[in-house]
Here is the input.
Amino acid sequence: MALLHMLLRISGEFKLKLVVAHLNHGLRPEAVEEAAEVKNIAFKWSLSHETRTVDIRSLKRLHGLTEEEAGRLARYQFFFDVARKYNAHCVALGHHLDDQAETVLLNIIRGTGVDGLAGILPKYERENLLLIRPLLCLRRREIEDYCRDHSLDPFTDKSNLETDYTRNKIRLELIPQIEKQYNPRIKEALFRLAALAAEDRLFLQGLARKKYKEIARFGKGATFFKRNDLIVLPKALTSRILRMAHNRHSSSKQLDRKHIDQILKLILRNKTTGQIALPGGSWIFLTHNRLILSGEYLQKKKRPVEISLKVPGKTLLSAGELIDARMVKVEELSWPPSRYQAYIDYDSLPPGNLTVRSRWPGARFYPQGAPGSKKLKSFLIDQKIPLNQRENLPLVTIQEDILWIPGVRIAHPYRVTNQTKHVLLLEYRMRKTVK
Here is the structure.
């Protein structure tokens, strides 16, 4: 209320167009009345108004978050949606000095680094929007005085007076105890600490962002790094770069120090493969000299156990690809075939239908040009196929034989030879290329 009133007072001088955005978290019965009153105030002050109700408890269960995390996720999503609707360039938030002190102390208790000591930032950019906190330098009591002086009547969230949440216990119990026995100006001291840490954070983030742009490579649903590019960096930069990559794939959960240490251990050890599950549904995969961070997109794109191929014909697969199968004459072949074409000696095939499936335990493959068959797992490792791609790699099979791995190799027994009379041409491509 104080923030809105202040902005309204200067809106003419600075040519501000204000939009009131109010989110009902659906946690308290009186929240419905509060939402209605906010709407009335916006109408009274001739301001645009947007409101939304969210079931925070359901959101909490859906994403595996705490209630506080779910509330924060819902609020910011709502703010960004409203800002985009009105083409706004800035979102103003009402955090104050007491909030800053509580946040820093909470982070210290949980165990934190420089970023945690920086607490709530006065301003930062997110999703091409500038978020500002104009009241961060003011004590709560100063804001309450302002409300009284201007006859504002803000609502009090009664849940802030309960000690069920750790933050509330810090506000209601710990800080008053520190003020009484150790430092009556502990809030101001924590505020100064946050300001100093924010300067260091800004410097380190700038270095990390520059390096991140230099060494990261991006694909659909994944971010790629060369392992050596990360190993040579100071840990302070590596950890920030990894967090930047993770934020690209998961906005609901942040990496903590435990996850950073796991990733650093993975890339520093001598093994060539490994994987780590990360918060928010993303994963880290190590394959030889590449570190791959993938989001939920790649994890959810599971290939069905088996799909029958139309021969001849076009068969749509599960991830937007297709395989085009057709019979051709030997003299019509163009050599060499592309990686996504397979020339198969049709008469050499055993009885049965051709299928596409993902790999299975104990699968073997006889690569063209090899002296014999070997474990599919060993072959894929030799070919440096990333670990996260192996489960969804399409395999063209007949009975228990793998005829072709699109983009990789065909099987030796089914290659075209001088004795071949009938050729089955298989072509793998994305559906969008179909005319």
